[in-house]
What we know:
The complex is a heterodimer.
Chain A: H1 2-12, H2 15-22, H3 26-55, H4 75-82, H5 84-115, H6 122-134, H7 137-148, H8 154-163, H9 179-204, H10 208-216, H11 221-249, H12 253-258, H13 270-280, H14 284-314
Chain B: H1 14-41, H2 46-49, H3 63-69, E1 70-74, H4 77-82, H5 89-96, E2 99-104, H6 107-138, H7 144-156, H8 159-173, H9 179-203, H10 208-215, H11 220-231, H12 233-249, H13 252-257, H14 265-268, E3 273-274, E4 277-278, H15 280-301, H16 305-309
Antiparallel strand pairs in B: 1-2, 3-4
Amino acid sequence: MLNRTADSVARATPEPLARKVRGISDKGLAWLFISPTILLLLAINIFPLFWAIYLSFTNYRANRPNEMVKNVGLANYKRILGDQDIWIAMQTTAHFVFWTILLQTLIGFTLAWLIDRKFRGHAFWTTIILVPMMLSPAVVGNFWRFLYEPQIGLFAYAVSFVTGIPATQIGMLSNVSLAPWSIVIVDTWMWTPYVMLICLAGLRSIPEYIYEAAEVDRASNWRQFWSITLPMALPFIMLAVLFRGIENFKMFDMVNLLTGGGPGSTTEVASITLKRQAFESWRTGYSSAFAIILFVAVFGLANIYVKALNKVKQR
Amino acid sequence: MSLTSAHSVVAPSAVSKRVAGTIIVLYALISIVPLLWIFATSFKTPPDSIAYPPKILFQPSLEGYCNLFSTRTRQTPEYINALGPATGVCDETVRKRNMVIAGPSNFMPRFVNSLIIAFGSTFCAVFLGTLSAYGFSRFKVPLADDLLFFILSTRMMPPIAVAIPIYLMYRELGLSDTALGMILLYTAVNVSLAVWLLKGFIDEIPREYEEAAMIDGYTRLQAFWRTVLPQATTGIAATAIFCLIFAWNEYAFAALLTSGTAQTAPPFIPTIIGEGGQDWPAVAAGTTIFLVPILVFTILLRKQLLRGITFGAVRK
């Protein structure tokens, strides 16, 4: 009915105006454009999420699809919170996240601060530094296994060359106390450029007139660094830290190929535990509950992240 | 205050520039060593690759690449002598080790899978992302901020947590180990990046262009097609490359949800083994071939890199 009225109006109006009327309304177009994305995300992300929530209250095992599924209430969650292995995995994750972020922030910021000096050829060398972060963590992590080999690996050889310790004794992946550091080193190597790039943007966003004013006020270089450079770059550093924090909290690929969680479970970060529970022990209900707990944790981080991001944007 | 102590950022002194330059060059050289080592190892023979001390100078060989692309069987020297002359470089190399080529390896099919899945999902993600980004950029969408946060938050989920229900869902739908399943999944992961990045790019295109086009008699859709899209090509290209890199590099979903016909290169490369352990030259050869496209893209993208890795939050 309404359409027919619109059509008759359209026919009576001059050509340019008529085309506008016949076209889809802005509101309709907006939904036409946005809904496919939302539908896809509902199907591939949200529906499975709800399924996982349902499974987390059951004793379902994916390798026995025909068995009766029993509702176990909150039992899975209770068991996770009381499970020693889960807490050890969370500690391993915390160690990994803390050290990677600390090292990446310190090295990344220093590199950015040096690159900001704009020496000759800085653009070229910056691009070289950026390369590791673009590569596949899995494929590169796999190759680091070779570099870490105690006898034949380049890393062990270089370390023994510098320190004098026999290369055969540098078993980065087999030594229980070194293995947690082996993943920290590879992650730092890969992702320091990431922090560096964001810090560099932060440093470049500081207007020069502030430094000029400080110069007029005879502020020392040291003073300028602490009261201008660092505070003004801080939102960018925070952004990088949050991004790396979220990414490393859910770290899986590099660690899975480099150490597989071993030796024993010394490098078993949360995602590796989750994989072992879900796809090796096939405790689907139990691992779903753990997945939900991890997801809630990441979601909390993401919330903080978006707020920080908006703050940076407003500057 | 003398001239030489002028502020370092306002005018960095020659000395500080030289020191900074030296440190950066040193860091860059050290950080690139593992990659050069991968490249070098791919041209070593297996004995050279596991020599101690590690060999920096060596006789280059194509054995790694030959082993990567072929499967081989061990034969007696009599059998090999009875064969005709070697038909190619690989045939010759392999025979020196008392082996004959039995057939092609799985590397090519896995590499092709990677190409199909990466390009397929990139196309879908950029297509959906462009439409949504335009919608969010130009129209008053109710709850726009919440929807945008929802879109971003899907990217924050730990992949293994998503993989558990997806694994069950794909098993029910018959999508396990299919390229279509992987394309759908990667599209869903990448579309969040595409929406956020493209919204930033489209926000930067002045609305006046479309308004002028609409006054000239174009509908909104035509204005979008003829004025906005051509202006956004750089942004769309950059976004596409970011999606491509993600899908190309992705490992967790691929390792858990594919095992055979739809397996991509990242879960396949670590499984390349020779006699008595990992065949490192072949692994290095596979890694080299796999990394080269990414190196090219990184150089092409360097101006947009910052934007891409921060979801458009930092634009320089």
